[in-house]
Each structure stands twice: as C-alpha cells, then as structure tokens.
Amino acid sequence: MKVLVIGSGGREHALVWKLSQSPRVSKLYCAPGNGGIGNEAECLPADQKSLDSLLVLAHQVQPDLTVVGPELPLQLGIVDEFQRRGWRIFGPTKAAAQLESSKSFAKEFMQRYRIPTGHYAICDSLDEVMEALSRFSTPVVVKADGLAAGKGVAICQTKDEAVLTATDMLAGKMVGLAGSRVVLEEYLEGDEISFLVLSDGERVAPLVAAQDHKRIGDGDSGPNTGGMGAYSTASLVDEQMQNWLVQHIARPVVEGMKAEDVDYKGILYCGLMVTARGPMVLEFNCRFGDPETQPILMRLESDLLDAIEASIDGHVSDGDFRWSKDASVCVVMSSGGYPGVFEIGKKITGIEDAESVEGVKVFHSGTSRIGDAYYTAGGRVLGVTASAAELSSAVKRAYEAVSKIRFEGAHYRKDIAARALKKS
Length: 424
Ligand code: AMP
Ligand code: GLY
What we know:
The protein is of the alpha+beta class. It is built from 14 helices and 24 strands. Helix 1 (10-19) links the parallel strand 1 (2-7) and strand 2 (27-32).
C-alpha cells in the first residue's frame, strides 16, 4: 500500500517511523517532510498551508491512503476534498475539525452535551469583555477563538491584564484574525493530561495517555510553546480513569457530533486538567499531539495502519491497539530564542551517537539535510525519545542521548517527567 503522510514535524516523523514498520506499507511519502523523515519516507515538496498544493501532489502520487498530521489542512477541509474525489484519507472533516479550530464552538458544544469544562464567556468586543469579566475571579484565562499554534492563550493575574490582553487580541495584534473573537475562561488548577482516542464516528478506542510540558523553561516557567517534552506511562491514567474519560468526555463528543449529523472520524485529542472537581476539558485537538505522539507511538506494539483503517472503515474497537507497559519520554531540543525569534541553519552533530543509546530514537521536528549533514530549520528541532521498563530509566536514557547532540544555541528542558518521578 502507498501511504502519504502530510506534515513536517516530530509528530509526522513518529507517524512515518511507525507506519514504516507495517508489513502492508510498500511505499511511504511525506509532504513536505524534513531532514530526518527522509530516512524513512520519500519527502515531496508541497505547501501544507495550501489545499491546492496538496491536491495536486496527491493527484500525482495517487496514494492508497493519506494521513494528515497538522490541524491547518483539516481546518481547510482536506478530508472533505479527498472524500469528494473518492480518495482514502484519515482524519475529521472540516465541520468536525471545528472542535479545534474554534474555541467558542468547542465551548458551546461542551455545554450542549454536558461535557465537563471550565466556565466561560464568548466576547466579540471589548465592551463584552468588560461586562463578562465581572463574573470571573482571578487569575482568568483569555483565549483567541481561532488556531494560534499554542500562542493564543494568556493566563492573566489581574482583570486589568485581562483587559489589555483582550484589547490586543481583538485588535489583531497578538495572533491576527484568530483573535477577532476571544473566549474568557475560568482558571483551572491541577495536572494536565493529553488523552487521545481513535474514533470511527460511532465507537472510540483510547490510546495510552501522555503528559506534555508546554512552557519553554524548567519548572513551567516562561511562555507557552508547541510543547517541550512529554512522557507516557501505564500509571498516568489507570483503567478506571480511562473508562471515566471515555464515558464522560470522548464518547459524548462523538455522539454529540453524530446528533448534529457530523461523523467524527480520526483522532480526538482531549487536553484535560485533572482538578479537585474532576477532569475538565481545556481544549480539543482533532489530530495527534506534538510531542505527545512521539512517546505514545513508541509504546505502540500493534500495527498503526490497522488502527487507521479501522477508523476510516468504521470498525474501531479496543482491540485496535496493543501497548507496551514500558514508559517512554520525549525531550524536545529547540533553537535558542524559540518560541520568540530564532535563527536556523545551525549544523547539528551527534544524532547517530544519541541513537546508539539503548531504547532511543531521535525524531526530527525542524531539520534539513544537506548531503550527510543535518541543520536546524525550525523552532523545535529534535524530539529525543526513549523507552524503558521504568520511567526513571527512560528519562536517564533520553538525557544521556540529548547530551551527545550539539548545535549552536540548543535549548532543552532539564525537568521533563520530573514531577511524575518525584511523586512515584
Ligand atoms: P489550550 O490551547 O486551550 O490548551 O491552552 C494552552 C495551555 O494553556 C494549556 O495546555 C494549559 O497549560 C493552559 N490553559 C489553558 N486553559 C486553561 C485554564 N482554563 N486554566 C488553566 N490553564 C489553562
Ligand atoms: N502538544 C500539544 C498539541 O499538540 O497541541
């Protein structure tokens, strides 16, 4: 089977790596891919922000199956366009993807189906923000309604700060048009968990859970990023909790969508805060997470292609996944300056040495390759991922591998999974 993966990050490298292990995959393409993905798939140039570009490419390549990594093509309706042409593609339609592409849509949807989430207000003007703020205590969270690559959320300590933030967002100064509507949200405290399920529009099957580390600095300091590291263990979400999350969150989403004539097919990523009042939804994503996918897929023992096909063909069951009990962890190495301004084109050394550490795989996020050499090409550069029977050993392996990699300005967090290790 010829499979095309769309995207260019660490998540897509992990998807390609796992799909390359499937005996039924005869040829793998990735568009546009990156320096490291080229080792496992043929990378093809395409503009992932343009449906036309992706349609032209798919027409040329004629894949038997297309797997979409990032949210933007889903929001643009790539699944609808492929389905109209009779091409097989994995992921939700444009209507279903609104759960991620509009926070106000997601909030109102959760309210309709009584899915646990924080109190909120949807505001289209500063007057509405001022009026709504009287109903919130501080800190209060201000979110841009649209897609903002992790940069559309501000936790404001005072109401004055919330007003200033909302003013900038509404004026398009922070995240452009994505902020022309804002959502105010109750601040929730607790542990964050990324809980993903596979859906075929009716049934859901949970994946193993992961925990992301969103802030740039150790101890959760500094600005939010796309994600600086993640880990996955069998104990992060036990069976009882998993059943609760399926029953009260994942299944009601898919059933609610169905009640509104939308088949939610693909991955549903539930970003949760486990609070004293129970787990609450912070956000939905309609795709695999990055970097969560790297440690999650490292624990997957069964064939990813089978699971993807079960979603498309409508026969998802718990048996679609078989997981290792091992723990896994991904430490992201980023360019100095990220998530702000950073330089690219720095030579990277030591990747092979890093991969010689037992249980380690280095997923490429933002790299390019010239000859045999790799260069930085993005904010997040590499996802150094390790597995081991115990989380502590996986963490040790990952950091040993990280220590072998060098590029100018390299940054990484030193405390990925540290809180979990302290608790255990
Ligand atoms: P989101 O894109 O909505 O997931 O928000 C990005 C990050 O901001 C989350 O992963 C949380 O760390 C934080 N966050 C978002 N909403 C809230 C909230 N209501 N309370 C506390 N933290 C939040
Ligand atoms: N790691 C968070 C995300 O993929 O949105």
